[in-house]
Amino acid sequence: MRDLTPWLRLILKRRGRLFIGALLILATLISGIALLAVSGWFITETALVGLLLAAGVKATIDLYVPGGAIRFFAVSRTVARYMERVYNHDTVLRLLTEIRTTLFRKLTGASRTGRSRLSGAQWLSRLTSDVDALDTLYLRLIAPAALALVVTGLVALLAWVLFDGTVAIAILLFGLLAFLIATAGVFFRTRDLAFRQSDQQEALRTAVVEHLEGFAELRAAGRLGRHGSWLLRQAHQMNVEQTRSETRVGWHQAASHLVLNLSAVFALWAGFHLHESAHLTGPVLVLLPIALLGLVEVYTMLPDAFGKLGGTLAAAARLNRDTTPANESGTDEAPLPSNGIAIEASGITVRHDDLPPLLTHFDLTVAEGQRLGIVGPSGSGKSSLADTLAGLLPPTQGRLASIPCAYLTQQTVLFEDTLRANLILGNPAASDAELWQVLELVSLGDRFAKEARQLDTWLGSTGSRLSGGEARRVALARVLLTPRSLVILDEPFTGVDSDTREQIIKRMDRWLAGKTVLSLAHGPDALPTTDRVMHLRY
Amino acid sequence: MTAPEQRTTRRWLTELADGNRRWIQGTVLFGTLAGVATIGQMVLLALIVYRGLIEKTPVSHLTYLFLALIGAMAVRALFQGLQTRMATHASAQVRRAVRRQIHQHWQAAGPIVTGQESAGALAREWIDHVESLHGYFARFLPQMSLSVIIPLMILALVFWLDWLAAIFLLLSAPLIPLFMALVGMGAEKLNQQHFETISRLSGQFLDKVRGLTTLQLFGQTEPAAEIIEHRSDRYRKVTMKTLKVAFLSSAVLEFFSSVAIAVIAIYIGFGLLGYIEFGPADELTLFNGLLILLLAPEFFQPLRTLSQHYHDRAAALGASAEILARFQQFEQEAGTPPRAVEAKTDTTGTIELQDVTFRYADASADLLRGLSLTIPRGQAIALTGPSGGGKSTLLHLLAGFLTPSSGSIQVFGREPGSFSFGWLGQRGFLVQGTWADNLRLTSPDASDVAIETALKRVGLGDLVNGRPEGIDSPISEDGRGLSGGQARRLSLARIFVADYDLILLDEPTAGLDADSEIFVLESLHKLSEAGKTLIFSTHHHALLSLADRILAVNQGEVSDA
């Protein structure tokens, strides 16, 4: 439960909104119960008075108050329900914004090694479903559970006023029993199953991806059918566990309904005893059991929500783990090298976690204004070295000092946003003229001048689609815009054809005049102009 | 992928339901029985009140009625529980059937067609899309039937008790199908809008998280957080406008049910007082009056439940449309299924291609034209030529991954792909697990010694011995796998363990580091010496020199080079 605490605190920050939303739900529930209870009272009253009238006894009945109440509750149930849904949906969307921004800010401060350990796409899809689980925490879990208790308390209070204390306490106990069956009971009986669910699903996903990657090999070896059947069995196994958990939820729901129904039977039975000793009138006797039957609706949503609580807790635990603040202190501010030097590395070791080091005792000195190329085959640790020199991956040994740099990572990262927004990440102060200038440099000026919205062209899946080479050049342009005197470029020309590359290299030469440039590539022809080239061996 | 028509999607869902009819019918049956028990419960409740208050029967004489009431409630709970059990079981069966169907489509499409799609996307369809069908089969579909059956049962009973009250019920829900359509329209729009917003917000959020390192490099994380906040807020405002309208449809349902209850309560009350002098009102008693009132909410309850499950339908339709679109796409791309070829002369010792022509389903020209070729068992054949010239296609035909548009291929007297052989693609592949698991994937009976030897042969021996538990230690620790070259050598080790007669390799040395390249070359040399038939595409001169025969594949023609 502790894992939920930070998220609950976040949700409960909007106390006012949550309170009003809860009041609206309460109004809906009470209107529903009251509509039936008052109607029951009214019918019984009229039946009894009707009998007296038929027998010729003079009797009076007030038709206006109960008639008005019935009409009022019929309307208030509708209105409260509508307002509740609109208001609470708004709250959910607000919470969604808040949870996402908070999570994003937390991720910003989280340890990068923890984040990179998880494979990209898989981690992102899991993140999405984990955040979704938190979004509905209030509307599915907190509000219904709290209100079930409140309404049960109110009905018990009603019993105390209309019947007596003993009946009230008994009803309270019935209600609490139903509540425990629908909440804690479900939670404890499905927790482990729900906890395992998402891990199982991830394991299955990995297995399916592997199956598809090895499709040709498995097919050639004649093992495709068997491996496929194995996958089907795994998937069915997962569904069988899910079925088990949902069936448990179903039985708990049925049991909590039964307990509430039994409390109505009890109220009826106790009511007759009170009626026989003339402590209670007939109409009032009918009112309470009907109200108790109405309680069922309040409890309906609970078992399902609590059946998912185990999964929600697991989701919260994963999010907490992924957002653990970095404990490496001061990595952001690399020490500055001596004057006239841009990068000074002595005896550094580059390694990821506990894996064998990629580079050991690595020395490198780059003077300001120098253009150094580093060439090595894939797998030789080039990109990890670049990450280290750029300050993303701290060296595990040795001393590294460098001036602040602009870094083009091996992976092209563009955002689903406008071209302008993507470019000005490099330099928020850049003018339109500067943006066009740098686009010309990477030979994309004409490409975007033709677009209707020019710099505001939308990039990404919903907008203008860029080829791999074009995307690479946008990323390069963004780095070139950055006003830093050290530029590190990892495979700057991936997917760019050789003619375009030649042109860009020439223009980059002028643009980067006076700056220190460190570029890395798999071969010398993929490098911009350099003064000297180092070779990394595998 | 083009989306199939909604009618096709709905028909597919219906077929799935038909295939598992018994479980779904069981769900409806238990739902109906629970409904009957509910009616019984209300009858007993009204009867107890009537006996006690009007007939003044002492409560001690009502014990058997109380017991019957408790019994009805228990039976109702039992049937409710059984209904869930049936429902979840029905859904699990359907999901299993769908997964099997998807799997069959993958198999029919073969490795070339499936290989063109992202494995992640296909896995998502196989796992998540199929899971999206759950709510439809477990909740929505049975509830569709129940929302007709139960209200009709109640209506019949109320009609018998007091036809005027039944007419009130009927009037408030003039035609149940109309009502359902109304609910459906609102719910559909609502869900669509809601899901769209949520997925757009998630998309925006994920996009920024994906590029978090980049944002940090440029020191732009805070502005990005503000953008997320700002955009979310804008989406919220837009969505709320639509939702305010969409919620009205469920409010209408709520309104009618509330008004119906109110009207019935007042009608019964006035009837009992004797104020209503027409119709059946003078026959009203506390028993039938109270019973009608208790049944009124139960009349609307199934409809309200259905409207709550409406998003299950939308989710299932969306997922099915994508699954079916993929089926269509694969069927088109895979082209015609293989047809039987008459066995000619005895070809058990050779690979025979006769007049083979191949053209991709969407291509305008033949990739291979009238190709005839005989390759004796035990030879090493190198295929060379420009990229796109048909080398890989020829290998795929020999592997049986593709079928020729015309002509016949016999591999050692059999259909290509009808027996086990070794295949080494451009990407190696490994599964989560130990080294031994990975080799036993294709050779389940391989001994530990055979596995160790095979790994040694491809130069992975040192790497494995360096791990604490040797071949029983996991391949990838900390989620990091092998390099591309190492993965390909692992695949090669599988071929060593399995001892195939025929081995096909697509550019076995392309993009390899120097170390891996040496091991691959040596391995192929060993395999060739062991008398295996090797056919590989390559440009690598060392590999070309390993071949007994070099074939140039270019512009649909194959000739000795």
Can you tag this structure with a few keywords?
heterodimer, A: 538 residues, alpha/beta, ABC transporter transmembrane region fold, Rossmann fold, 2 domains, five-stranded parallel beta sheet, three-stranded antiparallel beta sheet, 18 helices, 8 strands, elongated, B: 561 residues, six-stranded mixed beta sheet, 9 strands, 9% strand
Task: Describe the protein.
The complex is a heterodimer of chains A (538) and B (561). Chain A is α/β, with parallel strands linked by helices and 538 residues long. Chain A folds into two domains: 313 residues, ABC transporter type 1, transmembrane domain (ABC transporter transmembrane region fold, Up-down Bundle); 195 residues, Rossmann fold (3-Layer(aba) Sandwich), CATH 3.40.50.300. Chain A is 64% helix and 9% strand. Chain A is built from 18 helices and eight strands. Chain A has a five-stranded parallel sheet with strand order 5-6-7-3-8, sandwiched between helices. In chain A, strands 2-1-4 form a three-stranded antiparallel sheet, with helices on one face. The two termini of chain A are 48 Å apart. Chain B has 561 residues and is of the alpha/beta class. Chain B folds into two domains: 329 residues, ABC transporter transmembrane region fold (Up-down Bundle); 211 residues, 3-Layer(aba) Sandwich (Rossmann fold). In chain B, 64% of the residues lie in helices and 9% in strands. A six-stranded mixed sheet of chain B has the order 5-6-7-3-8-9, with helices on both faces. In chain B, α2 runs parallel beside α5 and α9 packs antiparallel against α10. Chain B is elongated and about 110 Å long. Chain B starts with 5 loop residues before the first helix and ends with a strand. The model of chain B has no long low-confidence stretch (mean pLDDT 83). At the A-B interface, α2, α3, α4, α5 and α7 of A face α2, α3, α4, α7 and α8 of B.
